[in-house]
Amino acid sequence: MIKNSSDKNLTIITKTLSFQTKGENDILDITDDIIETVNTTKLDNGIVTIFVPGSTGALTTIEYEPGLLIDLPNILEKIAPKSLLYEHEKRWHDGNGHSHVRAALIGPSLTVPFVDGTLTLGTWQQIVFLELDARSRRRKLIVQIIAE
Question: Do 136 and 21 contact (CB within 8 A), yes or no?
């Protein structure tokens, strides 16, 4: 059954999360932060979009467990190795050409529906921020909640 909510008003709330990363391959579980952000709105049904402003950070979901915290950086090294000569580095000499490529492949945003105030994540699915830059960074995430 499809429920048409076109006759209802939508609420849009935008919040910011800030944190410090340790640098390349720092994978942070931000699930609880997103749950808390959604819960503070007291909204029941909608979507939450998380967006990282910047070109060397990324967002995705993963089972946040020790094996995958090793596997994900290992596969990214195979897909976009640090050792390649990147045109970005020829121009900027900042050692993070691979970081930009990896971030572009994973993406800067993630949208998760919530129903009855609960994120619709799977049992073993957490929301993670991936620091892909070669150095530690102060990061800011934009969290936008759209709901009835």
Answer: yes
